[in-house]
Amino acid sequence: MTAYASLIGQPLWSYRQWLLAACFAVSGLVAWWQLQSRPDEAPALNARPRLPDYVVLNFAAVETDEAGQPNRRLLADELRHFLDEDRSELDRPRMELFQPDGPPWKVRALEGLVLAGGDQVRLVGDVRLDREGDGQTRPAHLETEQIDIWRKPSLAETDRPVRIRSDGDLLTANGMQLWYTEPTRTTFHGRARIRLAPETAPAPEARP
Length: 208
Hints:
- This protein is an alpha+beta fold.
- It folds into 2 domains: 2-46; 54-195, Lipopolysaccharide (LPS) transport protein A like domain (lipopolysaccharide transport protein A fold).
- It has 3 helices and 14 strands.
- The protein has helices spanning 2-9, 15-36, 41-46, and strands at 54-64, 70-82, 87-91, 94-97, 105-108, 111-115, 120-131, 140-150, 155-158, 162-166, 169-173, 175-179, 185-189, 193-195.
- It has a 6-stranded antiparallel barrel with strand order 2-3-6-7-5-4.
- It is globular, with a radius of gyration of 35 Å.
- The termini are far apart.
- The model is unreliable at 1-10 (pLDDT under 50).
């Protein structure tokens, strides 16, 4: 009885034992917090890199109309196709938009995307559209930063600022829609400004 009473009178744990238990508890809480604060790291490590299904260097393709005549031509230094995204990325794309009569539109840009199964081609970065003049149409040079070219209805459109030069005349607008096949027509968005080149006076005839 005396021995049992002496055990009851003594503390169950010593100070050192309490200190060790507290250290183990704190270490366990820190480890649990670290695991809970990084739930997304494991999936990120296992994420698959975004890789194209195939790559084509010096890409070239020609589309024809119902009569078998060339409708438009697309060239690029490199094409990368992503099947799951239904899109292709282009480096240094160039396009030719052929006309039934007259010279074609020639388009170039720094980058491009082929979307909607080829119905839409988006050109981005230093976009230039050029058409030579002939006996019926004036030459035209167009500059913008992005443009979408649609197979049907043969439309080129942008909501970015655009500049058009033709025989010294300059037109600027906040956007544009250009139907590039005959009959060619254009609409401009926002405030359009036109600066006409001064007419040059005819040279005087030399007297005999």
